[in-house]
């Protein structure tokens, strides 16, 4: 089991009389992810906010702030119990048998235009044996063919752009993997989470975007960017692509500072383990 | 109240050993739309199928057919009780107060790239008084600036394409209106329905794509293509755009004939009225 | 040496009071391509036309026709003397030494967005030994990865579209090969010509689009669509892509019938040979 | 007559063993633009370079530099004699009568996809009286509908992008105006020049991109960005769009510093005048 200490500081200056913020930075409540303790502070006395949980356990906060500086501080202790399985034992689910919720993730979305990639994806992956290994092959292909470069993409960059230009950040790797999976009829979705930054070579902890593919009746995690340790990734929001699952969406004139994030993994010898790379299929979601 | 007799005949030839069909041609069950009688016939004895209803009342049928000819016949009697209101009394809902379900329809989707249209849409509609009339202005603008031409677009045509090329079919009009609405923070969604073809000038009854905009706590209907009588439109499926709400999605090698559709409105003087054009705001959905 | 009998019949109906036609169907005058006899008939007595030759020998005809039917008939006898060389002996020209005319063909154009393909093209072809064989590798790659399908593309389809969707006609194969070549700094251009339809499996004679790459101080011909016998291709117009080199560009309201084309190769045992497939590098242009 | 003192300093660090530079920073030799004195210094003793002039008087410099720092300094005195005419007297040239050279500029190019804009452009400008005033209307429309914002676009941004997103720099304003002109059959081309920065509100002298439209047998200058005084613009390179007419194209690993540019207008009361805004049609090119 993984136990993470998550700490976040967001700093803004509201330039208009007021501004609305929609935040998805609360760790989701799921059967596999338990939020033990959490603490939220908002610096503006006059700000109003509320927290709302949807059927999947995702928690969305909306906050209305007034002109001037705004700080939002959040800390939580989160425990993640991964389901893991032997990749060789994880089958694909035939389209005809997909549950309705998973079926939606087979269709194209804003940044994952799978409808245009059928021939491309079938040529690459159509002949491979079905199962977890095929999703893994898509993940590896994306990682091998796209170069990670900070600030190489923008908010409108899509999977097609990344496929053509072969460069991006974690969001772009995720979009391309999702688009390719859907093009071969594998339901795939976008997760906004945090990256446990244990490995200095991979950089400090940060928000992260990764992929889940529906296989064997569960959603299995993949990190096509190869910049994180999947076992240390914590779920914030889930959606079809980044259009659904931004950690912050802002309406109004607002100046933002880079978020400050800390993620520490606890270790006590028996109960809490440090996240490590594994060849097992890892999952934290059934729906 | 409107009472429609709906009749549909679909004819395919399955060329592969089997094929999977996902159909959304059943009229949705909603508080405003009641399906009185319905009858479904599938020509293949060996075909298996099931019908599933989601939380919104949309009914999805999945069918697995074998090689060879396949006919699907469906008839239903459907009653629609429209909610109508004075446009001057229908306000916009501030983003901060949008229910979570409506909030999703403010984000960009596959064919409605509202994230790229903010400047364009604000220049056209940002200065207009808020309310139903603003959504109507978007609808009128789309109708006036896009030319209807059969077969002028394809399955990958998006709102941006239509904005640039100024030509399309009902699906394209809907996508452009939705994208423009979202760009000015109006939740908007795509409805696949049928078009009551009473007016010979507008063509025979057919599948139709139209738009719903979230205003005053309800979803109001708009027909940016101007080719239908909104009061006669019947809801089949609802989604972010055509990626979500096709009447048929097919996996396998299949040859299709054009669907044969009939929609007849009953009229009995007092209870059942013929659909007519109206200046009122019309709605058949709260969620 | 190749000797072709070329015959063309174009039939239009002008629907507006008048219409302007720009035709590039005259075989170009070049040192390697000699037009022996030619005959042109225009059916409208009132039509005016003129023929103009540019520095490269390309001949453009402009014609102004009046309302009503218009037929244009053209016949020519054309001799083509190919320069051929051993592929192993044909080097690339370093960018620094490219003549100014060739340099233009290294830049992106409307349908060949090589500026976006640098990473993609270098990953595929950057490590290959320089020379004719590298251009051949691009040609083969395009032929292997794109499927030929009639009517699968439109006048706005670009190399990026073809790269993503993997389907097209000869124009699309040419655009993709050109874009990939330019992305690795090989000057490449678009030729509109005719296809000697000797092989019934490849279809009847037709207009054709093919590619020339600047290597070893000459332009070498490539047919990435693989649908023609390059030795039998006759040059009409040359440009950066299809935007430059349409066989007909029309201004006005005009209804067109499919052009009727005949290309016959003469054979007399010694002087005139039938076009055949060859492994040699073939060229008919120095500039 | 305008007399400009032009001074340019370019500073690079070549990171690879060598790098090739193609520069178009020499003022073009044209009948209306005379280069009186010029001086070029290249800091690397081992660098080789040459200067080549094409038929239009454009001068391209190619330079091969070695690893390490590279500075290129250039100064010139340039006299520009503008042809000016009353806009009301400047007609459009019917397509049928366009000279072959101008005809090329009616076709779409990499960043000016006029082939997709016919309906859009005809709706806006199709009904206007033909002549200089119509090109002026396109220029004004672009200026009014696009917002100038530094760093808002990239090297792959096209006219379609700018039309949709309504923001850009001078290059983007030029591309959109060119695309719109071509869509209504007005030949239009891209000029890379310098901006006489007399007006502090418009910023210091800089490289600039502007437009020429073929009217009345000449190329007339337009500045759709509205950031320069057209009379003070000096021609460096001319092409279909930015793909053709970059001031520098670099092959190799090179780090660049921002160019340092000075443009001073001489004034001596009678012969040399300061550039001023004018309502006349201004031209410096017949071909």
Question: What does this protein look like?
Answer:
The structure is a homotetramer of 287-residue chains. With 287 residues, chain A is an alpha+beta fold. Chain A folds into two domains: 2-80 and 248-265, Immunoglobulin-like; 83-243 and 276-285, C8orf32 fold (Roll). Helices cover 16% and strands 40% of the residues of chain A. Chain A contains five helices and 15 strands. Chain A has helices at residues 100-103, 118-125, 132-145, 159-165, 170-183; strands at residues 2-23, 33-42, 48-53, 59-80, 83-85, 147-148, 167-168, 188-195, 206-215, 218-222, 234-239, 248-251, 254-256, 260-265, 281-285. In chain A, the strands form three sheets. In chain A, strands 1, 2, 3, 4, 12, 13 and 14 form a seven-stranded antiparallel β-sheet that branches. Chain A has a six-stranded antiparallel β-sheet with strand order 5-15-10-9-8-11, covered by helices on one side. In chain A, helix 3 (132-145) packs across helix 5 (170-183) and helix 4 crosses helix 5. The first copy, chain A, is globular, with a radius of gyration of 19 Å. Chains in contact: A-B, A-C, B-D, C-D.
Rounded to the nearest angstrom, the distance between the terminal CA atoms of chain A is 21 Å
Helix and strand pattern of chain A: EEEEEHHHEHEHEEEEEEEE
Provide mean pLDDT of chain A, rounded.
95
What count of helical segments of chain A does DSSP give?
A: 5
How many separate domains make up the residues of chain A?
2
Largest interface: C-D, 27 and 27 residues
